[in-house]
Amino acid sequence: MKLLTLVAGFLLLFASAHAIDVGQSFDDPELQQRYDKIIAEVRCLKCQNQTIKDSNAFLASDLRREIRRLLEEGKSDTEIYDFLVARYGDFALYRPRTSGRTLILWVAPIVFLLFGAFILARIVRRRLALPIDDDPAAGS
User: Residue 52 burial (CB < 10 Å; 0-12/13-18/19+)?
Assistant: First the structure.
């Protein structure tokens, strides 16, 4: 029983130490859900491979406070994303909007896949056109 209590204590200690967003949660569950969704979709500009929800960098903390303030002012999600893009560029969003400037991000993977399929088809067709040598002794 002591061991179980000790393990539970360590798990609780670890969970609280792992929490990054230590700000007070919203009283309104819908507002809290919107806040959690937004901070999970905004890139930490310092870490670049984490969301601001997962980052403990000062900039991420500052962005979380700013998003909290905007939500408290009654701004919509679109207005918050517009604010972030205007201030930090499309790079701030993990899923950049489809526009003329970001079109290459959305089209390039499809183009590369089609190009790779075309090259693979040519290689396979050329290999199938080669004559088959049935005599293994003739090659040695």
Answer: buried
Which residue(s) pair with 93 in the sheet?
Answer: 42
Structure tokens at 138: 């003739």
What's the pTM value of the predicted model, to 2 decimals? 0.57
Going by C-beta distance under 8 Å and a sequence separation of 6 or more, which residues neighbour residue 74? none
Burial track 11-30 (b if 16+ CB lie within 10 A, e otherwise): eeeeeeeeebbeeeebeeee
Query: Quick check: 59 and 68 in contact, CB under 8 A?
Result: no
Tens digit of pLDDT at every position of the chain (140 positions): 676 565 666 565 554 444 455 566 777 888 899 999 999 989 888 886 888 988 888 988 999 999 999 999 999 999 999 999 899 888 888 877 767 777 787 788 999 999 999 999 999 999 998 888 776 665 55
Q: Which domain holds residue 28?
A: 20-97
CATH number of the domain bearing residue 61: 1.10.8.640
What is the domain count for the chain?
2
